[in-house]
Design a protein that fits this description.
By secondary structure, this protein is mainly α. Helices cover about 40% and strands about 0% of the residues. Bound molecules: heme C (2 copies).
Length: about 260
């Protein structure tokens, strides 16, 4: 599924229909195609990286390419092996599929575009190059992906249950704000591990960086975003509570405010 399709469908959502729409599109998160991801750095990979990625991510993957200077959020510095968008637990390296997916999907609300001008093979070829920038991949393996179970049926009840978790149990509002606008009382002081200011995501925009499907949202607060203050809530919730929280977060999208975006 192309991200553009996903995003325009989100525009059709009303706040109450959001959760049930999530069920329809949420069961088909974008997964890496069955492409062969090379295990070693190849000439193709090096050339593709140099031409398309290094202007932002830098020759040595330090996130310091010539275009990076005035950019915020900064292009990822790959040297620490800290990846935000993963299916793996907090602190773990990402899987190759996770990286492939980000390259294909891009990162909405940043200058990282979906790289659909590259062929599947080119996108796969840069993965060993990115990994070669960090020693972590030489000494550790990614932990197994978290398996996302079957989504429970979204309803007013799951949304109301999720709201309680958001407001009372886990206090997501402290960073993300009561209405999910990324303006909670702790929002202003947030920094990433590289010392750059970072905003808690504004859910009302609907353009989730890690993907808009319900399983994407479920994974984001379960895995946390490595290298950022967004923690992992892996142990606090049952599977059912996770879906409730997911439905509530998706209900915060305000399609009517984002028509032009
Ligand atoms: C115009 C600048 C730009 C170019 C060119 C670019 N990126 Fe990015 N990239 C970014 C920015 C900015 C981010 C960080 C976005 C964020 O964290 O919100 C990013 C993040 C990423 C991530 C991080 C994923 C994660 O989970 O943390 C990966 C992987 C990535 N880029 C791969 C690539 C590859 C591969 C290419 C070349 C095909 C590329 N990028 C080209 C700007 C760029
Ligand atoms: C300490 C502050 C903080 C708390 C508490 C917090 N978050 Fe976050 N969250 C962030 C930040 C910062 C980001 C943005 C990271 C980025 O843009 O790279 C984020 C991102 C996210 C995303 C990813 C959105 C995307 O773009 O894909 C989701 C989903 C999310 N938070 C859900 C939650 C939920 C649910 C809770 C409560 C259980 C919560 N957060 C609690 C700081 C926080």
């Amino acid at each position: 599924m192309k991200p553009k399709v996903l995003l325009s469908r989100v525009g059709l959502w009303s706040a109450t229909a959001a959760a049930s729409a999530a069920l329809l599109i949420g069961i088909a998160p974008m997964t890496a195609k069955a492409v062969n991801i090379p295990t070693e750095v190849t000439e193709d990979g090096k050339n593709t990286y140099k031409k398309y990625c290094s202007p932002c991510h830098g020759e040595e993957g330090k996130g310091d390419g010539p275009l990076a200077r005035s950019m915020l959020p900064k292009p990822r510095d790959f040297t620490r092996g800290a990846y935000k968008f993963r299916t793996t637990p907090s602190g773990s390296l990402p899987t190759d599929d996770d990286i492939y997916r980000t390259i294909s999907y891009g990162v909405p609300n940043s200058t990282m575009i979906p790289w659909d001008i590259l062929t599947d093979a080119q996108r796969a070829s840069v993965i060993p190059v990115l990994k070669s920038f960090s020693e972590a991949f030489g000494v550790r393996k990614p932990d197994p992906s978290i398996s996302v179970g079957l989504e429970i049926r979204p309803s007013e009840k799951t949304v109301a249950e999720g709201k309680k978790i958001y407001e009372e149990k886990l206090e997501c509002w402290k960073c993300h704000g009561v209405e999910g606008r990324g303006d909670g009382p702790s929002a202003a002081e947030q920094e990433d591990d590289f010392g750059f200011p970072i905003k808690p995501f504004d859910f009302t925009t609907g353009k989730f960086k890690g993907g808009n499907s319900s399983s994407d949202v479920y994974l984001r607060f379960t895995t946390g975003l490595n290298g950022t203050p967004m923690p992992s809530f892996a142990k606090e919730l049952t599977d059912e509570q996770r879906w409730c929280l997911t439905h509530y977060v998706l209900s915060l999208i305000k399609p009517e405010e984002n028509k032009e975006k």
